Target: ABC transporter ATP-binding protein
Amino acid sequence: MKSKTSSAEYISISHLSKKFDKDFVLKDVNAVLNKGEILGFLGPSGAGKTTTIKILTGQLRPTSGDAEVLGINCRKIDELIYEQIGIVTDSSGVYERMSVYDNLRYFARLLNAPIADIDPLLKRIGLYEHRKKPAGKLSKGQMQRLVVARAILHRPKVLFLDEPTSGLDPSTALEIHRMLLDLKEEGMAIFLTTHNMEEATKLCDHVALLNEGIIVEYGTPEEICLKHNKVKKYRVQLTDGTKHVLLQNQDTAEKISQWLYESRIETIHSCEPTLETVFLEVTGRELK
Ligand SMILES: Nc1ncnc2c1ncn2[C@@H]1O[C@H](COP(=O)(O)OP(=O)(O)OP(=O)(O)O)[C@@H](O)[C@H]1O
Model:
């Protein structure tokens, strides 16, 4: 983990814990997010992802440990930080009777963002055609784009997204992904929570796999998968339709060469771990 003094370090989380009543829902969480990076907090429902975001945005105080966001200790965060961060949770906070444009104009005034930035932003997120529509009449995907637009209108340094593509169709999710990668390129630091391991693998520079409040793996998606690539396996489908998963060893080599000799192999692949299979291996739990 990098030192606290790094100028590009926008978020640092150190031994963070949170207790509700008697139960710890976060236990000794450590992570770092630098400028121009995407950090993913991944875990099943109840793992503590939203609680982490709430602590980092000043909505909850931790029980112990520390976190800094843009150099401000999480216990001292107040509304002033909202000039420098954007938050996407759900669509609450959008005024449904106001038009798309008026919603953004309202937030631009609130956050001192230039009104002239609204139209280019609407074009960028594909909502320009819908700018006069009441927000309440947007589709789910359009609403999600509006919520992201509202969160980035004032060009924050850090963007928090709590499951930004949950429930979206694949093409809308893809548009959100493209937008996030563009924002990252522009230097924004993005803190993302998701259940979706494919999304995390594609977008995140680093991921924290969170289970019951504990980070069970932390690193780049590649590092984590490589670390768990010790037991090598092959997946073979034969021409008779049967499927076989075989450990890489002498017996398998002999079996595969026999099947090759008999022209019985339809497909053959090596089984590299994914974040999904790593999570299952480490926790014994599916991510759904
Ligand atoms: N205000 C609260 N009081 C008591 N318990 C809470 C409170 N907020 C959250 N919890 C509990 O803390 C645990 C973690 O909740 P959190 O919302 O952080 O999970 P999550 O990983 O974001 O889940 P999901 O993917 O379902 O959003 C859950 O067991 C939840 O019931």
Remarks:
- The two ends are 29 Å apart (CA to CA).
